[in-house]
Design goal:
Blueprint: H1 8-21, H2 27-34, E1 56-57, E2 63-64, H3 67-77, E3 84-88, H4 94-100, E4 105-110, H5 113-126, E5 131-135, E6 148-153, H6 162-165, E7 168-178, E8 184-191, E9 197-205
Parallel strand pairs: 3-4, 3-6, 4-5, 6-7
Antiparallel strand pairs: 1-2, 7-8, 8-9
């Protein structure tokens, strides 16, 4: 007789314990991750791995981020409940969904129309009415809705993202991977209220590159 498989709740509980042990300790962030069904954002081929603490492939050569990285970046943003958040790189929509549970509004930009449409359907399934999507060049941000309280970039910018920093409130926070190589530096930019930023290094990460323009899809 085969042993019974763990339930999704049990697998999620183990994932939350793993994140906590790695330093993701903000209770609001952990609760947001716990309430977001990662399996909904994972391709059918990888459904069984949805609760693993690892990045997984999705369409258009992109990835759904490792839960630890999602937790680390979200925690670093220090999001307040009334915050307006800009996300660059919607991808599967998983990180977007986590952000939506912590903020008032999430504006998210995606350069792949296929990914954007699939993510929008998932947002509808979850009843996330505070997410506003845009098909466009993420590197340009969303100037019409600026300034933002928080900005998260989920693709590696080759250098300091000045265009995005310019769309941040004076005391806002931006978290982004920076670098041109296969390994990038995850950085936290905290506005000093006077036009400058305090930069904190959060460790090495691996992200797909932040590309200019929108993608041409067949």
């Amino acid at each position: 007789m085969s042993e019974p498989q763990d339930t999704p709740r049990e697998r999620m509980a183990r994932l939350i314990l793993a994140l906590r042990s790695q330093g993701v300790t903000d209770p609001r962030v952990l609760e947001a991750i716990e309430k977001t069904p990662r399996e909904l954002f994972t391709p059918d081929l990888f459904k069984e791995r949805a609760f693993e603490d690892s990045a997984l492939p999705i369409a258009c050569g992109q990835t759904i981020s490792q839960p630890f990285i999602v937790g680390l970046m979200t925690q670093a943003l220090t999001i307040e409940p009334r915050a307006r958040v800009l996300e660059i790189g919607t991808g599967s929509g998983y990180q977007t969904a986590v952000l939506s549970r912590l903020s008032r509004l999430v504006y998210t930009v995606e350069r792949y129309r296929t990914l954007m449409k699939e993510a929008e359907e998932r947002f509808r399934t979850l009843g996330l009415i505070n997410v506003i999507t845009r098909f466009g060049d993420g590197g340009e941000g969303w100037a019409e809705q600026a300034p933002f309280d928080r900005i998260m970039v989920t693709a590696a910018a080759p250098e300091e993202p000045k265009a995005l920093l310019a769309q941040l409130k004076p005391n806002g926070v931006l978290v982004a991977p920076i670098g041109k190589g296969p390994v990038q530096s995850l950085r936290r930019y905290a506005g000093d209220g006077q036009g400058g930023f305090k930069v904190e290094l959060l460790g090495d990460v691996r992200f797909v590159p932040l590309l200019d323009g929108v993608a041409r899809e067949l």
